[in-house]
Amino acid sequence: MPMQKIGKMSLKNSGGFVTRVYFTYLDDDGNKIMTTKNNGDLLLGQTQTIDPATLGVPDGSMVYLYAFVVWGTDNEAKRAFIYEKGNANIANWVITGTTLNNDLGLTNISS
């Protein structure tokens, strides 16, 4: 089955901490690259929806959501998607737990 294409990803922070959204993606040589930009602090109860290109992900890349947890343990999504600029699909994630024991889960894919 081919990988699902998305145009954006969202993260809802349901954890007791501050997090920042980054992305990791595979370059043309298969190396995993982490974006150097983020979308700012995401506080408890907030949701951010982000087009990966705004943080430097090239169109057509295999992309993962990466949640940087301030003063805690970061969490990278286990599931990857193909980023396609302008695609209507949004991969919706939620992060829960505490700084040192958190879970990142895919809730759904919406359009």
Describe the structure.
- The chain is mainly β and about 110 residues long.
- The protein has one domain (about 5-110): Immunoglobulin-like.
- It contains no helices and 11 strands.
- It has strands at about 5, 10-15, 20-25, 30-35, 40, 45-50, 60-70, 75, 80-85, 90-95, 100-110.
- Strands 1, 3, 4, 5, 7, 8 and 9 form a 7-stranded mixed sheet that branches.
- The relative contact order is 0.32.
- The model has no long low-confidence stretch (mean pLDDT about 95).
Short structural summary:
With 111 residues, this protein is mainly β.
Oligomer: single chain
> Which range does the strand content fall in?
over 45%
Number of helices: 0
**Poorly predicted spans:** none
What name goes with the CATH superfamily? Transthyretin/hydroxyisourate hydrolase domain
Structural class by SSE content: mainly beta
Name of the CATH architecture? Sandwich
**How many beta strands in the DSSP annotation?**
11
State the end-to-end CA separation: 20 Å
Order of helices and strands: EEEEEEEEEEE
| CATH fold descriptor | Immunoglobulin-like
